[in-house]
């Protein structure tokens, strides 16, 4: 087995395709590193500026009055950029990088203004959430498109050329088991393509890690190790596919044509077609809040309570808080509907190994849709913490009427800005792994099916 693997490796090392693969992978990885070092500092700087502006806004509201802080909310919360954006960043441009707390109205006649509620900016059409832009050179593009094609080019003639030249018959005449031949050729091709890919990855990481503009911590290096393993597993999948077709046909030219058609179908045609089909989902339904009837009812009760200032304040507070709760429910329903459609679309496109590996890289790189869901959970958790802080602060003031939504009903004392909760956008590795488990299982299943098919075809082939 190792003799066959070494012979296969020697043949590949002395071939033109090995030199072209090395040159192509090195060029793409260097391009990726240079672009990342140019763009990542700008992303980080913009994030820092946004966070600083957010904190200054909270301080200004806290210094103004407790009512301003309670009524206008935490402001705009921003997503922290990933240090591994260079691994899988093609889908980030189509996802919102912030969530805002907004006030939707003011009623000058009654001196009321809306209480804040979370607003989730819509992403661009669902097709882009499941079929990222292929013009950006990140690891997802290099692994998903280039590495898979190179794997087929290294195996399209592994067995068919041996049959053409008659060397396969001589090899099997020495009572060598066929599975030994197949595994030897598989290992030889895997080592051959791993050498230029590993070299390109090391050069890429060397350029990035030695720069002062990018920092990779221990967690990032661990995730990079997992991404490298996923890349090798994905390469094994296409090596097995190449051996399957090469064992099935007798001529190398026919094998190459079939494999190129299969690559176009699996990597180019299927993702774009399935994404287009998934993008034809029903449009998101958006219900609007009608103020007319609710304001008429409020005016009626407000006039009935004429002379009772406390009751009027309670009616005003109930009107404002119920309106905010209703808007919050509508925003969350709209968000859940969009998430459901994107998840359905992503499930449809999982028939393509290229889409599967893109999802895996996004999960461990901390980008893409799963990362966006974690950011939304962090925002919602912080919103609950902020509301609890407002309630606790107002409850601690015995002079307050504890009626939220109106200026006279809440505490009139100043708030220490340092006590206001600060938003932290954290990531959870366990959550990332759980999100990637199904895709990892599917990728492994693809590999097992193709390798088993190659074995079954090869043991039955006539030489």
What does this structure look like?
The protein is mainly alpha-helical and about 475 residues long. It has one domain (about 1-460). It contains 15 helices and five strands. The strands form two sheets. The chain has a three-stranded antiparallel beta sheet with strand order 1-2-5. Strands 3-4 form a two-stranded antiparallel sheet. It starts with a helix and ends with a helix.
Order of helices and strands: HHHEEEEEHHHHHHHHHHHH
Mean pLDDT: 86
Low-confidence stretches: 125-130
Strand content: under 5%
Count of all domains: 1
Q: Counting H and I runs of at least 4 residues, what is the number of helices?
A: 15
Largest sheet features:
3 strands, antiparallel
Strand order of the largest sheet: 1-2-5
Q: What is the end-to-end distance?
A: 19 Å
Shape, principal axes of CA atoms: elongated
Task: Output the radius of gyration.
Answer: 30 Å
SS class: mainly alpha
Relative helix content: 55-70%
Number of strands: 5
